[in-house]
Amino acid sequence: MSLYDIPVKTLSGQDSSLGSQAGKALLVVNVASKCGLTPQYTALEALHERLAPRGFSVLGFPCNQFGGQEPGTADDIAEFCSATYGVTFPMFEKIEVNGPGRHPIYSILTEFPDADGESGDIQWNFEKFVLSPAGEVVARFRPRTEPDSPEVLATIEAQLPE
Fold first, then answer.
1. Rounded to whole angstroms, how far apart are CA atoms 8 and 121?
2. From 18, 31, 32, 35, active-site residue
3. I need a labelling partner for 67 at 20 to 30 A (CA). Which of 35, 105, 134, 144 fits?
């Protein structure tokens, strides 16, 4: 099964899939509102705004598995992201990224190794995966790697369809 085929709900509860983003370079990120890394939303939104015209999107997946740092409802999360960081990129339902309740999207993503060759569980909020326009995982960046770091930007640029 392709990442594009796995059903997921948007933050507003609508049925969707990553297939709605087919043909774009994607940055998939597990996000949280009350994390020390939450300010990464600023760089994520800036990347989304700057590169969207070239066939790119950030996709956010709220997760409450790390220190209870995403405790709110879907409405709470949407309000926080909009009011605090002006988030316009697609946000999906709160999911689990590790353990027996791991969402099927993350079952595929976590098989991909990072630059050190390590695959497996998500380490913390704001772990990042770059997907090609064909929906293939091409890179994994750990949480402390900033979204606008040179290595992330170079990887995204190499995947842009336009």
1. 20
2. 35
3. 105
